Amino acid sequence: MALRHNGKTAIVTGASSGIGRATAKRLAADGANVVVADIDENGGQETVQQIESKGGEAIFVEVDVTDEWDVEAMVETARETYGGLDIAHNNAGIEGTNDPLTEQSLEEWQQVLDINLTGVWLAMKHELPVLTEGDGGAIVNTSSIAGLAADGSAPYTASKHGVVGLTKAAAVRYADEGVRVNAVCPGVVRTPMVERSLEEHPDAVEAMTDDQPLGRMAEPEEIAETVAWLASDESSFVNGHALPVEGGKLA
Ligand code: NAD
Q1: What CATH topology corresponds to 9-187+222-239?
Q2: Where is the Ketoreductase domain (predicted)?
Q3: Of all helices (H) and strands (E), which one includes residue 173?
Q4: Of 60, 82, 156, 174, which one is the catalytic site residue?
């Protein structure tokens, strides 16, 4: 049976760790050539190695998603190395601090918004022309349940709500050019992002799972599976959605 993403080219930002790494590995296992994009070179090279050790194809590009020149170079790498672009998973993000809104600095607010929201906009700005010049394709942006309801800090929640709006705007505008744009909204996922906050507050694991019907966190692979589906022809009529993958917490 043909692999679901055979011969396609994918960009995954934030692919040096957590959800991005799991998605890069999932897409590569499904046959895609993957541009592993991240600000962290060591983690990115490790992702490439893990893909290559399973017979997959990947290349690392060092990119700060807030830097337009870097983002342009990332998309150009996909075009030059693999001849185009079919899938983009715009996923790089940071959690920021959990301080109350009134105690946050303007710099903290701007950093979270720059990476989590402007970074997704910049990526789409440069990915869409390449996606539309080929046979179209699919974009999956990483939002969060914090993109659907208040969860975490004010800047984080605002940035993730922004990703949902940006996703819808692009989905409506580019549908007739053959590009579907959706967002994935994970609940709590066991990644280095969450492990960092558990180091600071070890008892928080219960608070994170108490109101969780499945009684546990997600594994990054469970989010990657959803992204790979949203990026595939199997979801060909799903467009402009913010899909919660949160084990029923919002239910
Ligand atoms: P992670 O910290 O494991 O991975 C985030 C990656 O983004 C890292 O590799 C980091 O180097 C990269 N990154 C950070 N700033 C960057 C920049 N300026 N340019 C390029 N790369 C940059 O975290 P994760 O949990 O895998 O998070 C991935 C995405 O999922 C984030 O957008 C996050 O907000 C979102 N998310 C995570 C959870 C969760 O519970 N882990 C839940 C909902 C949404």
Answers
A1: Rossmann fold (3.40.50)
A2: 8-192
A3: helix 154-174
A4: 156
